[in-house]
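Quick one: structure for this chain?
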Amino acid sequence: MTRKSTDNTVEFETVSRRHMLAATGTIGAAGIAGCSGNGNGGGNGNGGGNGNGGGTGTTNQVENQDISIRYIPHGAPGQDPFWSAQSEGWEMAVDQLGVDAAYQGPDSSSNFTQQVSNVETAIDSGADAIAVTLPDPDLFQEALQRAAEEGVYVIVTNVTEQSFLESGEQSMPYHGYVGQNEAAVGSTLASNTLPLIEEELGSQPSRAVILNHDPGHSALSMRQDGIEQVLNDQGVPHDWIEVPGGDPSGVISRLASFRSSNPDTSLVFTLGPTAGNPAIDYITNEGLEGEVFHAGCDISQSQAEAINEGYNLAAVIQQPALQAYLAAHYLTTQVGSGILTPTHTPTGPTFVDASNVGAVEKQIETFGVA
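Got it. Here's what it folds into:
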């Protein structure tokens, strides 16, 4: 399979039939190769083949060449390690499946208007099925309704409607969700982190701060709400500040400014690697290990190392590569075989600290983020 990239659209072109037939098989129901033949030994003629040696057969990869699927997230690979991991997970699945596929992110992360336009473009281009994230669900009502009317199968990944997570209610048509329950992320992170920092400091933190790198993002709002609820319940003073996503030096500057005015701050929560990685850098650059601690959502290589070193207490992970990987398989098996997507496939939240960070190190090495 060849890969070509234009801006933040990554297209995957199917390889030749000869290379398809050479494939050894794939992971998941959509990628199991099947072979058939007539005659002795499973083929036409002697020796199990059509003539000398090999057999004749088909693979699901060859059949999948006529299936067109699109992944339309709100993040752009290269601007955030999270979305680079998603792109790689999608590419891994597409390589296995042999479908006509493209990852179509916006030119800049969280450009929701362009994301909606990408959905419309995918419908216009004749895509059979689409996976989409819903960072601002109201914006997608018309596009997803049109997809349903035109017979385009749609699933949601990474972030969906809060009503769906709370009660299963949908305000627009889609056929399943692959991702974590964002409503539980913040509370899971905070409730498990506070006992850890108490072990380090001998008491609860004097003050905590939450860094939000995209305040208009519904999932980040749910994460922040969950963290704040736990901090309120435990009587921990806290604030939240907006930091510039995609600008590590800007994140460090805003955090340094906040802590200059609030020197009693000993716990920093972040809502994704875009803010988490610079927060770790701030702690190490200022020599604050053992005085200021971090806990965040999603985990990068630097954050995993910081967990092992003790000043990054914990993370809650959702496995972004797995979300995109499963989305490609779900879309392909539905279009090709009519298999229905599960209502909710949870990929998290999973709490990670020093006791189990080793279990995700391979995933981090492979994709950059878990």
